[in-house]
Backbone:
């Protein structure tokens, strides 16, 4: 038996993430062809790829072993012929029980005497190759596949993500989902500081040393849904989930909001080469099943609700390209007006100065001929802006670069200037906007990106520009995994790196070595945002499924203290129990409905919304409660401090 | 034009609840035949019944008026010919704008010149009769149908139930529902004491006099869903709703649980005569549409999930019959063992003594011949039980009634005793259980009802009895509207009457006069419980839609203080704005799944449940939070009292 490695994984990575050392496989792998409950006698002879959890081996002789391979939909018996030669090569026999594995093999029909009733009872799969996707800890608290010896209820409650792998429970959840079409996650959760402020729910219980105990309302069901998929009890999770954020009033944000939330096990990989154009269909990261599900869902919504047929594939752009061309990580591609990097056109000395500063010179040109929609709305002056505005005239056409303060004020010869004007297609009468930007894009938008949107709004409000009516969907991928540029996160990060989205996002496999080498800034994540007409309507990622990598990110990259890490301890342990590679996404349902209903206010699409300052004028909440109740929950109203923000 | 009165309403009620005095109509009315957006040229000539909100009149001459009639699905123009004679009889012209009305009339085709584009643009409906279902207050805060003069946002937020009647908002919610298949209600609500204890959610805001302000998590979305339907913005509401209860640990109760929740406008009436047998199909109260929807839903679930075809109508039993025959308001009808009222068989003097005490003598007979399943498990003695057990022998067969302490110990002649034994089909060797009960059943179960269940469990566990596998669904209707027998409610009621279910349940129209006369005990409500195999899986009711009646119930029956009434002020006002007759139901989804998955524990059908004491061993919640956070929410951990229950 051969250890399977995706042909596109470079050799060095294959060594770094191979299976012989019982490390999780974090690079691309083939897509499964069937679930473990799907194969029948009709498939005999087929080559198949299965994923699932390896159950205990049964020896069929010195050179023959049988393994049940289980997923939430069924069990298939694997047949493994051990080679007489090279007995030391990696073998399924070395893989701990309950590990997540991928196998490639051939479907064999069973001899009549060996046939069993029920699905997959007529076949075996002879294994040729396998990938150990994630080894289970050798010391699991209990074995969910052992139905003869079920652990006690407290132990199973503590390790619910293992218990959910039990066939009986996983069947119950599938039943529940068939009836309600969703799996639900708890609303009463544990407080865990990640980003925005949570709502707390006091209880009438205290710790042994008399500390009050609280639930917290989820900002998103991120941990429960990952734990659910890690359990193996369900293969896919879907929920319309209520989420909560105790934010100080922000325009059009609601303290409770609704997400279309999903998560999937064994998500697989897109194309393994970079695209040649900025906007393409090339999705290089994992999570292609998530992409497919969301595109199908969105297409169905637009078809049913708007009567519009959307294209069969949404466009894809990397974060880098989006920032470079549109100065935004959620570009509105309904109009052009692209940003140009003019650094390469600069004379050598000037170019070098920019390079040394780690900067580039960006230009947003408004050409009288091509960008006439914007031209008439583009003359503005803003003293405090880092942006320089130059109107090209007969007099400055050859010397604007020399005169430009953004460019650095070095002399540029007339020939060079003419060449640049020709490259940028600039003529007398055009307006150009110049701005210095960091060479490596950071954050969600750049000054020229914001200017681009302002110009578009001006052009629209003056009737010069009307945007196309068909929706422009766009995936943005390959975001930087970590950031220091998010003011909202600085409250918790306090000078440390923050996760751009959340700490569970997996790095691109190409950047795993950089991650471990400490080159944090350049590491890109397997994150994807879905953008509609310049509005981010959702985002998700392939998650880290390697416990060691997750711990490294918590401890070495984000430098979380033990106390800060403690709300994630169950996730870390779940990853050690043979968690499958998985990924998911959440769409902002309220925002989506705002667009679908063609209204400006999120309050127009919620039956009973809160005001912009988070109050409810109908139910007159929040409201006071009686002192009798307050005391039970440990409040001391008379000592209450004044509102602090 | 004639004021329409349902032919089955007795004359006195017709006078008491007629429309001329602009009082809401609370008695039966015909079912609507179409929505206001449904009629087309194909319906010309049809007799129709429409329900909706009356918009401002347009005069077409001295004897001719036009009224738009609007519901959430469209608008139909009504044509009213005013009679030359009897001009003082009730007229739609006297009905306030935005009142809920029912009209009966004939569909007229419009002349070509009067046709308008869009649905219902080809037709009018000439009104013959109408019922004023609910008059709108003459001083509405604003008129939602006036699209040219939309009120300011704060006013609309305060009276969201009127704003939701606006066509634009109601279209948004319909769109939202098409996408998510549900309408959602808020989770962050205002605290309102009704039954169980709520979870509070502290905010970082205080009142002007420095009192902390809280949201509360809903025990059920009862008020929001009624307000939604009262608004007229949606015709039907459906949600899989999360509900919360801060209860001290009870077996198999979860602090957060899930309801299948629905509410419908313009629910109409069942049969208006009593049934002749205890178990029947006769549904005498309102809410037949709710019954139909739930039976269809349940039938579909059992068909899809269990592959079982359920009967096309579930059985119906009144609370009175259920208590009399089974000693339970959720009888398990999978086995017989019925209770017999033997008072009528007693000699006159004894019977009179029972009558004077307001009691009856109930008997649970176990006949060796017929109840042999139970016979062998029925011998038990329980000293503290109010139940007397007699084994019939040769010696006591003629004198057991004379000897019985439950019967009162009066001598009964041998002839009388023989006659009673014959009536009860009692023979030597039979076992009978006797118990005195109140003549008017109270509460959810009687001692003999509990004994009946115990005997069934004993018979099952000893293998004597196996229950049928097909599910036994049963509706229980006509519950007492008020109670003093619910210990759980006494905490809030403190000696006053409590609502058996909730204060929004409408009385049966036959009992409205008794309600206003103060005969509270005998008033039956339009409540219905759905019982499956002796387990209550859901309950609901037709709601009070008459603001004056709702206020009377709050103030005069339940004797709520102004402060206790204040959380209901928006509902009272919504009823004054032309709220339609409406009703709904909630099914306990977790309990339903427990039965469908054939498991004993609710925790087996929830992905991440809490333990029986309401803690989460996986996420280790509830948990402490940092003092920095505590202080922001007004907690003083150091002064915290010890856990009080």
Residues:
């Amino acid at each position: 038996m051969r250890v399977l490695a995706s042909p596109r994984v470079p050799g060095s990575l294959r060594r770094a993430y191979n299976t012989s050392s019982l490390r999780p496989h974090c690079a691309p792998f083939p897509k499964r062809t069937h679930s473990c409950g799907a194969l029948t006698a009709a498939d005999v002879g087929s080559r198949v790829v299965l994923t699932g959890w390896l159950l205990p081996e049964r020896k069929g002789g010195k050179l023959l072993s049988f393994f049940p391979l289980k997923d939430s939909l069924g069990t298939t018996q694997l047949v493994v012929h051990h080679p007489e030669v090279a007995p030391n090569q990696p073998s399924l026999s070395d893989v701990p029980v309950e590990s997540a594995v991928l196998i490639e093999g051939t479907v064999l029909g069973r001899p009549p005497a060996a046939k069993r009733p029920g699905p997959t009872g007529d076949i075996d799969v002879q294994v040729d190759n396998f990938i150990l996707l994630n080894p289970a800890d050798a010391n699991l608290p209990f074995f969910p596949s052992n139905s003869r010896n079920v652990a006690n209820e407290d132990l199973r409650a503590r390790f619910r993500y293992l218990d959910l792998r039990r066939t009986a429970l996983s069947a119950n959840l599938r039943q529940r989902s068939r009836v309600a079409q969703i799996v639900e996650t708890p609303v009463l959760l544990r407080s865990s500081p990640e980003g925005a402020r949570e709502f707390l729910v006091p209880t009438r219980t205290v710790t042994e040393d008399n500390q009050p105990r609280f639930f917290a309302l989820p900002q998103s069901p991120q941990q429960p849904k990952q734990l659910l998929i890690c359990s193996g009890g369900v293969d896919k999770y879907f929920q319309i989930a209520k989420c909560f954020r105790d934010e100080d009033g922000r325009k059009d944000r609601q303290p409770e909001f609704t997400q279309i939330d999903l998560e999937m096990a064994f998500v697989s990989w897109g194309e393994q080469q970079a695209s040649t154009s900025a906007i393409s269909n090339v999705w290089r990261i994992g999570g292609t099943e998530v992409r497919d599900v969301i595109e199908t869902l969105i297409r169905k919504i637009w078809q049913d609700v708007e009567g519009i047929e959307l294209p069969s594939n949404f466009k894809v752009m990397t974060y880098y390209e989006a920032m470079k061309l549109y100065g935004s990580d959620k570009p509105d591609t309904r109009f052009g007006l692209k940003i140009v990097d003019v650094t390469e056109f600069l004379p050598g000395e000037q170019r070098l100065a920019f390079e040394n500063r780690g900067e580039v010179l960006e230009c947003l040109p408004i050409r009288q001929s091509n960008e006439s929609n914007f031209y008439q709305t583009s003359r503005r002056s803003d003293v405090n802006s880092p942006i320089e505005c130059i109107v090209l005239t007969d007099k400055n056409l050859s010397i604007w670069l020399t005169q430009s303060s953004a460019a650095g004020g070095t002399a540029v010869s007339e020939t060079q200037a003419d060449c640049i004007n020709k490259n940028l297609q600039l003529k007398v009468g055009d307006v150009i906007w110049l701005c210095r930007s960091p060479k490596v894009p950071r954050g969600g938008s750049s000054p020229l990106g914001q200017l681009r949107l302002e110009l578009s709004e001006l052009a629209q409000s003056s009737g010069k520009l009307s945007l196309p009516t068909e929706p422009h969907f766009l995936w943005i991928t390959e975001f930087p995994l970590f950031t220091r540029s998010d003011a909202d996160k600085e409250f918790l990060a306090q000078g440390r790196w923050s996760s751009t989205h959340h700490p569970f996002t997996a790095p691109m496999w190409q950047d795993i070595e950089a991650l471990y080498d400490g080159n944090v800034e350049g590491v890109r994540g397997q994150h994807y945002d879905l953008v509609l007409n310049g509005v981010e309507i959702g985002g998700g990622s392939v998650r880290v499924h390697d416990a060691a990598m997750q711990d490294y990110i918590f401890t070495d990259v984000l430098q979380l203290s033990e106390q800060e890490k403690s709300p994630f301890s169950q996730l870390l342990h779940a990853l050690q129990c043979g968690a499958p590679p998985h990924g998911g996404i959440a769409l902002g349902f309220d925002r989506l409905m705002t667009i679908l209903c063609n209204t400006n206010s999120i309050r127009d699409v919620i039956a009973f919304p809160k005001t912009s300052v988070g109050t409810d004028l109908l139910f007159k909440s929040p409201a006071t409660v009686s002192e009798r109740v307050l005391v039970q929950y440990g409040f001391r109203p008379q000592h209450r401090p004044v509102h602090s923000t």
In short: The first helix of chain A runs from residue 11 to 16.
